[in-house]
Amino acid sequence: MRNRRTVWVGAVVAALVAATSACGGNSDEGQGVTPAGESSSLAPDLATGGYGAGAGADQAGAPSRSGPAGTLVLREDNKLGEIVTDSAGWTLYRFEEDSAKPPRTTCEGDCAKAWPPVPADDAAAAGGMDPELLGSVKRADGTAQLTLGGWPVYRYAQDTAPGDTKGQGVGGNWNVLAADGGKASVQDSGGSSDDAPGAGEDDAGSAPAGGAPDSGDEQTQLSAVKDPALGTIVADGQGRTLYRFDKDTAWPMKSNCEGECLETWKPAKPVDKAALKGVDPKMISTLKRSDGTRQLAIDCWPVYWFTGDKEAGDTTGHGVGGVWWAVTPDGKKANGGAPAKP
């Protein structure tokens, strides 16, 4: 009788843990934002938090990546055209999950360790920049962070030398800043950056090659769509098919697509649960990735879009390597994890 009672109690405890832990692992569903003052500051300890064991920390005798920016500098980069650095030459970045209108920062806690916010103190515009574009935003810990064109400004801890641009495109959410607060990109003959301050488009290079058309419904960020070969699958607000990866895990929720993998498979951004069509909001959660960015998950599976899909509705990523599958609204593999029906 005692053993039976022990088993019953253990089962109840396990059920409670499962019910209160959501997807486990790095899920940030329902957790809210960690105030910067609790785990980071404008001069964070970069040797903690799983971001390379201090690889990005300030070194003795090296210019600081956590102090005031001083007078900004416009520098010509071979790949990105004209970019913005601080007075010591450290590249400055913006985060696409922040906003410029109104200025708002969402990079807190471990994110701010990997991406040190630039203080607003002592910042001045570079020659050729409009001083009116410089401003500040108040962070959760009360400190003032520099903004450019309304966008909160950051450095990247893994840039190891002034002029490095290793943060460009990380997680599909981080972009080097252009002089107007837009995202730096390879310049056309017209010489303008790929967006204007406050623009809300996807990141530079985030659209599939050839340009995927919009889904036609700007209010819907996630939809269940009928595919003739795969059945009902999920597409994002641009009509791009979303995929799951067999090497990821749902419990604990974890993405194992890092490094070169991210050049081909882009983490889908979190969505507003009020902007779903044919997808149960209870299936939607958010994964906190190793670089501090957030990724959409369906039934605790991290989901991605495939750069090989050229147009909205393409499903060329289904079955790639035998490990990538279009995802259904309940988080399952489309077509049972089999290749597309002929």
UniProtKB/TrEMBL annotation:
Q: Which Pfam families match?
A: Lipoprotein_15
Q: Which InterPro entries match?
A: Lipoprotein_repeat, SCO0930-like
Q: Does the keyword Signal apply?
A: yes
What residue range is the signal peptide? 1-24
Q: Region annotation Disordered: residue ranges?
A: 24-69, 181-229
Q: Which residues form a coiled coil?
A: none
For bias type Low complexity, the affected ranges are 188-214
Q: Which UniProt keywords apply?
A: Signal
Q: What is this protein's record name? A: Lipoprotein
Taxonomic classification: Bacteria, Bacillati, Actinomycetota, Actinomycetes, Kitasatosporales
